[in-house]
Design goal:
Elements: E1 7-10, E2 23-28, H1 36-44, H2 48-53, H3 56-60, E3 66-70, E4 79-84, H4 91-105, E5 110-115, H5 120-130, E6 148-152, H6 155-180, H7 188-196, E7 204-208, H8 210-216, H9 219-224, E8 233-240, E9 248-258, H10 278-292, E10 298-308, E11 320-322, E12 328-330, H11 338-353, E13 357-362, H12 367-372, E14 377-381, H13 384-397, E15 401-403, H14 408-411, E16 421-422, H15 431-440, E17 449-453, E18 459-460, E19 470-471, H16 476-487
Parallel strand pairs: 1-6, 2-4, 2-5, 5-6, 9-10, 9-13, 12-16, 13-17, 14-15
Antiparallel strand pairs: 3-4, 7-8, 8-10, 11-12, 14-17, 18-19
Helix pairs in contact: 4-5, 5-6, 6-10, 10-16, 11-15, 13-16
The structure holds ligand BES, manganese (II) ion and zinc ion.
Length: about 500
């Protein structure tokens, strides 16, 4: 697993500043004011910082961006990174500033002279996340990242905030690693093994194998994996940090590879379907974060792990399967497999845990990318309070999310001639909504439920503020915040 760069937070000690190697980061306000520490670096570097702050490059830089001086005279450091940031930045700006430091430092150690600037823990969060690289399959890649050191006026305070944020960052990195991992490495078995290992950090983890899933009657989930050599599994991760209240259930689609099955996808871009377990990846990352920060809440994470392959044993278009709920499903298109997996895991989650709310995450439809692009995940819910609380948490964390409608007319598209329902809406209209309607058929009356279609945001082809291209870990921070804001005891 990718490790976060080591972070230390100490008191200010400028005694050995001139001899520091690596990078040194300082802050300047939009109008070019240097704090005390930046002034010290300025005087040691024969006013290089002051000249940089007066330059056109610094003028052009946006708030939260950085400009670098290389090999400054008077310092052993390879570079001084000057970050444009107000003394009291927003969370978003502070994290962006951290990302700018991460990019500017490259592989060097970095000393950040934070002094009494606000939100230094968020800056550290930005440095840690933007420094992520997925390298296990690059031979000769450097595996130890350069150290991150913050010198601040109130180290205890910054450390306490950083402890929580680093638990979130670890969850995000766990999600990114799972989502980036190719399917020949991340088989259903390997995925389950990696989750089982989280017993180390205090989670209770059960792996349900195919025999057990058959006993439970999960004919919908099981029909997806029939063509694969990898056995289907459901993994149940429990964190019991609350009292005896009902848990929140997080449910994830974990299709380790989606060829489409007999309804085979076209070759172009099929390699992207290695991220089709992104929903399960986010659920796993959130559970990791909750355990690491010892959340005072009861949360259960359930993931359905399958591989969608064509073969002589694979499910055919036209086959009818019986779900754990008992409803029968006509499989019109074997590429609409995520909903078949979720139907049974959602039902099992409700039957076993009687949760106070259910949130599912899935890279469910290409249609959500057409609707919302890479900027926002699709949010569907039967509960205004739940979806509003989530949208607020997502906004705070800078994770895009946008609510889309549900309704009886969409549900009616799932009518089947020969079974209780079919697995696609017929035609491409409102494809993300008809998929959500299918899921809602497996939600019990009165259970608050939210479905997040993350097909557009789980993995992206261009760098984002906090992530290099590839898996983003979208949703870990927002769901962690939803839990702390809404479900956690004071
Ligand atoms: N895993 C795909 C959805 C997807 C598409 C995720 C692009 C990420 C990027 C899903 O299983 C799928 O194939 N959906 C079909 C549904 C259709 C057959 C009704 C789709 O979106 O085309
Ligand atoms: Mn599919
Ligand atoms: Zn899929």
């Amino acid at each position: 697993m990718t490790e976060l760069a080591p972070l230390s937070i100490t008191e200010i000690d400028l005694g050995t500043l001139a001899e520091r190697s690596g990078a040194i980061a300082v802050f300047a306000t939009e109008d070019g004011k240097l704090d005390q520490n930046a002034r010290k670096v300025n005087s040691l570097s024969k006013k290089a910082v002051a000249r940089l702050v007066e330059s056109a490059a610094f003028e052009k830089a946006k708030t939260g961006e950085a400009v670098t001086v290389s090999y400054p005279a008077g310092l052993a450091a390879a570079k001084v990174i000057v970050v444009k940031m107000p003394r009291r930045p927003s969370v978003e700006v502070a994290r962006k500033a951290g990302a700018a430091i991460a990019k500017a430092r490259g592989e060097d150690d970095v000393l950040v002279l934070g002094g009494s600037m606000a939100r230094m823990a968020d800056v550290a969060f930005g440095v840690a996340l933007r420094g992520y690289a997925f390298t296990p399959h690059k031979t000769g890649a450097q595996d130890a990242l350069g150290k991150i050191e913050f010198m601040v006026s109130a180290p205890d305070e910054v450390q306490a905030a950083a402890d929580v944020l680093m638990a979130v960052a670890e969850g995000i990195v766990f999600t990114r690693d799972l989502t980036n991992e190719p399917a020949n490495h991340l088989t259903t078995t390997e995925f389950a093994n990696r989750l089982k290992e989280m017993e180390n950090i205090g989670l209770t983890v059960e792996v349900l194998d195919e025999d057990k899933l058959e006993d439970l009657g999960m004919g919908s989930l099981l029909c997806v994996g029939l063509g694969s050599a990898s056995p289907s599994k459901v993994v149940v991760m429990q964190w019991n940090g609350g009292g005896d209240e009902a848990p929140v259930a997080l449910v994830g689609k974990g299709v380790v590879f989606d060829t489409g099955g007999i309804s085979l996808k076209p070759a172009g871009g099929m390699e992207d379907m290695t991220m089709d377990m992104g929903g399960a990846g986010v659920v796993s990352g959130v559970m990791r974060t909750l355990a690491l920060r010892k959340a005072r809440a009861n949360v259960v994470g359930l993931v359905g792990l399958v591989e969608n392959m064509p073969s002589d044993r694979a499910t055919r278009p036209g086959d009818v399967v019986t779900s754990m709920k008992g409803d029968t499903i006509e499989v019109i298109n074997t590429d609409a497999e995520g909903r078949l997996v979720l139907a049974d895991v959602l039902w099992y989650a409700q039957e076993r845990f009687k949760p106070s709310a259910v949130v599912d995450l899935a890279t469910l439809t290409g249609a959500v990318i057409i609707a919302l692009g890479r900027e926002n995940a699709g949010v569907f819910s039967n509960d205004d309070a739940l979806s509003k609380a989530f949208l607020k948490a997502a906004e705070t964390e800078g994770e895009g999310a946008w609510r889309l409608p549900l309704g009886a007319a969409y549900d009616a598209k799932l009518k089947s001639r020969i079974a209780d329902m079919k697995n696609v809406g017929g035609g491409r209209d409102a494809g993300s909504i008809t998929a959500a309607q299918f899921l809602q058929r497996f939600i019990k009356e009165g259970t608050p439920w939210m479905h997040l279609d993350i097909a557009g945001v789980a993995s992206v082809k261009e760098d984002t503020v906090l992530a290099p291209k590839g898996a983003t870990g979208w949703g870990v921070a927002a769901l962690n915040r939803l839990i702390s804001d809404t479900y956690e005891a004071e």
